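Example record used in the benchmark description.
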Amino acid sequence: MDVFDETERIGRMLEARGLILSARSGNMSVRIGDEILIKRSGAMMGYLKEGDIVKADISDESPEGASVEYKVHRAIYLNTDFQAVIHAHTPYAITESIEGKDIVPIDAEGRYYFEKIPVLDVENGISSDEVAEKIPPVIKRYGAAIVKAHGTFAAAATLEDAFSKITEVESACRIRYMKRVRDCSTG
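Model output (C-alpha cells):
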C-alpha cells in the first residue's frame, strides 16, 4: 500500500469514528528517510484526494502548503525514532484535558496501554514552538499526549499503529467522562 492510500484510509477511519469533528481539522504524516509527507493545510482528513499530501525535506522548517502543525510533526521526527504521527481533535480527550492535568485511565484496557496520558498545559496549543519543544520527550516515552484543550498527538512506526493509539486515548477519556456523568446523575 502506498503512502497516499494509507493516509486516505486512516483519514476515513478517523472521520468515521468521530475523532475529527470539524472537516478540516487534524493532520497526519509519515517520515520516509529524510522526507516528511504530511497532510496539506485545509485538506479534509476524511476525504483526502490526490494533491492533499505535501512532501518536504526534514531540514525544511516551513514547507509551503503543509499543515500548520508541521513544526510539531517535524520536532517529533527529529527527536524520536517514530515514522508516523497523527494529530486529531478528539472530543473526549479534549474535554478531559481542560483541567491541564495528566489523565490516569480508570478502565482495564486504558490502564493496559497507559499508566497515564500526559496533558501538555501550554500557552498556545496550536502550531506553537512551545508544543514543538515540549512534546517530543513525552511522545517518546508514552507514544501519545494530549495538548490541553486542543487534541491528541500519537506517534508510532506506522500510521495504523498511531491510529490505534489515538483510539486508545480517546476510549480511556470517554470512559472517564461517562463515569463522571453517571456519578453526577446518581448521586
